[in-house]
Amino acid sequence: MASSVWKGYITFGLISIPIRLFSAARSESIHFNQLHKVCHTRIRQPQFCPQCERQVERSEIVKGYEYEKDQYVLVEEDEIKKIAPASASTMEIQEFVNLRDIDPLYYETSYLAVPEDAGRKAYRLLVETMEGSERAAIAKVAMHQREYIVIIRPRAHGLTLHTMFHANEVRDVPEYGHLDEIQVKPEEVKLAKQLVESLTGEFDPTKYRDEYQDRLQELVDAKLKGREVATVTEPVRAPVIDMMEALKRSLAAREAAVPKKPPVRAPVVAAEEKRAPRKAAR
Fold this sequence. Notes:
alpha+beta
């Protein structure tokens, strides 16, 4: 079973729900190690003290905050624990907001909240209440020596938490969204909508793959077997000059790519029965 990253309570008024948090997702990728070119030995990064000119053990390492150049104030683990806020063990819901009002841009890291046995009924109550009202909860939680604002939302009959970027952390690019001076024709919009409709399908995350990672794996497998890997040809894209023509050609290419369903024909037997006269009952 996966290890939890936080253990504590969600409080909802006078109701306390014991939960554990688990990481909801993590990126998967092929990693390459650094090797010594001469002997192909993996390069390691030892803990080295340049003052004492020797490697140090983990037990000799302490935390220090640099307040001036090369000047540190030492901080012990017990001292850090003593100043931990209440949110280190209790996640108090501060308010509920409309889920549709939250811009996904504010979602940072995702976690799955799983109830302890003693809190399963209260957890279910909160899930059903939030599902029915289409609300999300805003709360605080301290972990990894930081206090986070979190968004709690119902998902798949459970509670998913997202640490939230603060407003000052969301970047503002001056050029973003300023296209008022650009005009498009109604005919172009109509064709663009048709193209969108032709490309519309059900969301299924299993359909999407990281093709670059797949090719890296193919490269590694091929080199292990002493084979060469074919080079990927970069597509040549001509600049769009005539928008209407580009949309028409895109639609035509899409229609040609979608296999046409054969026409539905009536069963032969049914047709024969329809033509055959029925005998009168005696």
